[in-house]
Amino acid sequence: MPEIRGYATHAAGAELLAYRYEVGELGADEVQVRISHCGICRSDLHLIDNDWQVSKFPFVPGHEIVGTVEAVGKAVQKLQPGERVGVGWQSGSCGNCTWCRSGKENLCPDSQPTCVHRNGGFADAVRVPARFIIPIPEALESENAAPLLCAGITVYTPLRTYGVSPASRVAIVGVGGLGHLALQFARVFGAEVTAFSTSPAKEEEARAMGAHHFCNSRESKGMKALGGSLDLIISTVNADQDWSAFLTTLRPEGVLCLVGAPSRPLQIPGSLLIQAARTVSGSNTGSPLALAEMLDVAARHKVKAQTERFPMGRVNEAVAKVRKGAVRYRAVLAN
Ligand code: NAP
Ligand code: ZN
Q1: What CATH number corresponds to the domain at position 49?
Q2: Do residues 144 and 156 both lie within one domain?
Q3: Average pLDDT of span 39-58
């Protein structure tokens, strides 16, 4: 019986241990990918800690995967062994609902994440249905491309959804794994870009990545100066914030879009939404079609993740550094 070697946690919050699992015959529509790189998303930490109460142990994290096709099932036509491909957050959907049929598989109510109740990418290989395998453009380096598969698409989607253009003023909350890619993509879309950050030490790099303005979100003076000026705020933080202060920076019809989920319900005065017809929304990764488009845009406009590489065997050290918020800006495991 063939086996895959990976790293798994056996209890919420526990260290990852070497873990081998047997895999049977490859499914007709499945592809086996030999993993070269896998990014560490903060969602992997939420799942390690079972914050969302959906983790099943032993749990193999990892959903920012790049590798090469090793084997394809009998029904797979378009992918060839040796081809360089990526796998992101999603590895399954019903295929029949309105959302799947309209190319928005990421909104399918039966969406299956790559590493929830499946073994993810902290491993030497992964098996995924061919529909969720995305070819990687040649111009992208594997290590820099891996974080695009989740972090990249998650911030790219709201820029597309809300029609960001050179006329737009866009702000990104949090300069981390998602945020540093959001700054780059927002700049590529032509927007005037503001970085909201709690880390003044990140200012220089945030500006180099695309921010025209840098605002310390812990200082009310800077927040007030932005009052009524922004069209779109994409918040990548999972911490509770003064949401009223952010809403006040939005112009009429402005949108606060959450991609990071704060642990507590949002406290928002209705009047801040009503008077200026502001919207609070959310966004979740992106479809396979959107992933291919995003990778193409990244390749042509030189958007790339700034990474810190760790050998797969040093996964616990890498996870600990992500936990501390000390990685600039995405940790990537390499086999
Ligand atoms: P990350 O690399 O840790 O970055 C998060 C950033 O948030 C930090 O770099 C920091 O930026 C800021 N931050 C951290 N603690 C904060 C606090 N207490 N107050 C204010 N700001 C704080 O994490 P990530 O990988 O980008 O993921 C961010 C969130 O997005 C996670 O919750 C993850 O689960 C979620 N996510 C959602 C989707 C989706 O589809 N919606 C997809 C992927 C990830 P500064 O130092 O600049 O303040
Ligand atoms: Zn992720």
Answers
A1: 3.90.180.10
A2: no
A3: 97
pLDDT of 129 over the 80 cut: yes
Which of 38, 40, 43, 214 has most ligand 1 atoms within 8 Å of CB, for mutation? 43
Query: Which atom of ligand 1 lies closest to the CA of 106?
Result: 40
pLDDT for res 237: 97
Instruction: Identify the residue whose C-alpha is closest to ligand 1 atom 27.
Output: 42
Angle separating helix axes 288-301 and 151-161, nearest 10 degrees: 100
Ligand closest in space to the Cα of 259? 1
185's tokens? 């993509």
Question: Does the structure show a pLDDT above 90 at 280?
Answer: yes
Query: Which residue range is the domain that position 236 belongs to?
Result: 152-282
Nearest CA to 322 out of 259, 206, 238 is that of: 238
222 lies in the same domain as 252: yes
pLDDT digits (tens, 9 = 90+) for 94-124: 999 999 999 999 999 999 999 999 999 999 9
The tally of domains found in the chain comes to 2
> How many Å lie between the centroid of ligand 2 and the Cα of residue 74?
30
- Which is nearest to 40 in space by CA: 22, 57, 76, 65? 65
pLDDT of residue 263: 86
1 pLDDT higher than 90: no
- Same domain for 119 and 66: yes
Average pLDDT, the chain: 97
**Do 92 and 181 sit in the same domain of this protein?**
no
What is the amino acid identity at position 272?
Answer: L
For residues 176 and 202, give the distance between their C-alpha atoms in angstroms, rounded to a whole number: 10
Mutate to test the pocket of ligand 1, among 41, 111, 319 (most ligand atoms within 8 A of CB): 41
- Does 197 sit in the ligand 1 pocket, CB within 6 Å? yes
Q: Do 102 and 27 belong together in one domain?
A: yes
